[in-house]
Amino acid sequence: MEKLFKLKEHNTTVKTEVMAGITTFLTMAYILAVNPNMLNASGMDSGAVFTATALASALATFIMAFWANYPIALSAGMGLNAYFAYTVCLGQLQGIDDPWKIALAAVLVEGIIFIILSFFKLRETIVNAIPENLKYGITSGIGLFIAFVGLKGAGVVVSDDSTLVALGNFGRPEVALCLIGILVIAVMNHYNVKGSILWGILITWVLGIIAQLTGWYVVDPDAGAASLIPSLSASSFIPPSISSTFCKFDFAWIGSHVSEFVVIVFSFLFVDMFDTIGTVIGVAEKADLLDEDGNLPRVGRVLMADAIGTVAGSMLGTSTVTSFVESSSGVAEGGKTGLTAMTTGILFLVALFLSPIFLAIPSFATAPALVIVGFFMASSIKKMEFDGDLADAVGGYLAFLMMPLTYSIANGIMFGVLAWFIIKVCTGQLKKIHPVMYIVCALFIIRVITIII
């Protein structure tokens, strides 16, 4: 362990690192319940998604552990999975058979581009070209969007012909239990309970089982209300097959819809790019891993682990794999090396044999996790500058506003970037626009043209 991870150099021990890895896993294991539920909405088999998510998470985290030697774990990114399912599959590709195959192809291409950008060290340049306000506005907007997805999935928010949206029926168990779950996680966070989001999901699920046993929650498969009690036979603990999602790419559609596909890929790139950089730098700063100039040593390896994880995840059958901010919980427990990440990766492999538990968890039990994660992401709004440059302020604001209101992360980014660019041009600030942003705006202008046509 000393040779692999240089524990003495980082002033840590095997026990400390292992406990930190367990803590990180507990705080991010909710993704194994959330991701299958979310991608199932796009038509994917939830069992296959569960296995793909666990395998891709373990692989990417092992690369981070052994190659970069950092205490950072990776998995299918929140926000990116919502974009995959609701914006791409149920939005831009609505009406197409198996739209998730096209979305997986987009994730594959995104990952390959990331590998190239990381190899030539261009990724940081692109991230630095994006105005801070836009970054904060996009992050906050994604938070609102995934919270809205969770509330809608649990029936707390419903559609309404007069007001577009309205409150759901509080007499329904799904609605009541979702709201209870949100409060449970919030209270646990107050008391710094490790794995509070995972515990909140499990408690909400158990309350749902009690509701089923007492007759309040009625099992009706035709209405989408499946039994909440898992099958615990010996054979059920065999990890679900990924045969239905493994390398299931649809490249035929892409040939006749190149511009639309480019926008889909670019939106994945745009969100994942600065999200990863921000997460990695934030976790590294908390672990005191930055050098005296504020730079992260071996950052290329960190970004490459993310890129390889994304390519592997697309081949296995899951959405974009990225560094998880929950890694900071392990760092808070003393994790400083790749041994922390290795421990988390091993636990993802162990979780493969717990599929009956994770797959029996209903969407109303995972909805509180989406709402709370959305809360943490939306808090970035307080970092926005509203009194400074109007282009930055309005661009960030529109990104924040339009994501939940148009039910699309891509639309939010498009509105924010184009508004920022146009205001910059109209106010004579051409010299302040980074050359990279001209390319970004050109892609979104193409997107607007395709929408109009």
TrEMBL record:
<dbReference type="Pfam" id="PF00860">
    <property type="entry name" value="Xan_ur_permease"/>
</dbReference>
<dbReference type="InterPro" id="IPR045018">
    <property type="entry name" value="Azg-like"/>
</dbReference>
<feature type="transmembrane region" description="Helical">
    <location>
        <begin position="46"/>
        <end position="68"/>
    </location>
</feature>
<dbReference type="GO" id="GO:0005345">
    <property type="term" value="F:purine nucleobase transmembrane transporter activity"/>
</dbReference>
<dbReference type="InterPro" id="IPR026033">
    <property type="entry name" value="Azg-like_bact_archaea"/>
</dbReference>
<keyword id="KW-1003">Cell membrane</keyword>
<keyword id="KW-0472">Membrane</keyword>
<feature type="transmembrane region" description="Helical">
    <location>
        <begin position="397"/>
        <end position="423"/>
    </location>
</feature>
<protein>
    <submittedName>
        <fullName>NCS2 family permease</fullName>
    </submittedName>
</protein>
<comment type="similarity">
    <text>Belongs to the nucleobase:cation symporter-2 (NCS2) (TC 2.A.40) family. Azg-like subfamily.</text>
</comment>
<feature type="transmembrane region" description="Helical">
    <location>
        <begin position="251"/>
        <end position="271"/>
    </location>
</feature>
<keyword id="KW-1133">Transmembrane helix</keyword>
<feature type="transmembrane region" description="Helical">
    <location>
        <begin position="102"/>
        <end position="122"/>
    </location>
</feature>
<feature type="transmembrane region" description="Helical">
    <location>
        <begin position="134"/>
        <end position="154"/>
    </location>
</feature>
<feature type="transmembrane region" description="Helical">
    <location>
        <begin position="346"/>
        <end position="377"/>
    </location>
</feature>
<feature type="transmembrane region" description="Helical">
    <location>
        <begin position="174"/>
        <end position="191"/>
    </location>
</feature>
<feature type="transmembrane region" description="Helical">
    <location>
        <begin position="12"/>
        <end position="34"/>
    </location>
</feature>
<feature type="transmembrane region" description="Helical">
    <location>
        <begin position="198"/>
        <end position="219"/>
    </location>
</feature>
<keyword id="KW-0812">Transmembrane</keyword>
<feature type="transmembrane region" description="Helical">
    <location>
        <begin position="435"/>
        <end position="452"/>
    </location>
</feature>
<keyword id="KW-0813">Transport</keyword>
<dbReference type="GO" id="GO:0005886">
    <property type="term" value="C:plasma membrane"/>
</dbReference>
<dbReference type="InterPro" id="IPR006043">
    <property type="entry name" value="NCS2"/>
</dbReference>
